[in-house]
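Hello again, I could really use a second opinion on something today. I owe you a coffee for this, so here goes:
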Amino acid sequence: MRLLQAIEERPRNANQFAEDLDLNYTTIRHHLDVLMDNGMVQKSGGDYGAVYLTTDQVDHHWKTVETIIEQVE
């Protein structure tokens, strides 16, 4: 959920998310892949340095995402 919130706040590349969230790069990449596989995140640009963004579907339903995040926290 932290990663999804961070993407919504400001799209970045995987390395930047790892630094900003103080998590291992491999962990970030795994979670980005899961989010991409589930249609929640898309990447823009080449493989290395690609910037990750939320999909239109997630943007459209962001209030629901926020509700879920509140329940998890």
Notes: The mean pLDDT is 94. Residues 25-37 form the longest helix (13 residues). The two ends are 9 Å apart (CA to CA).
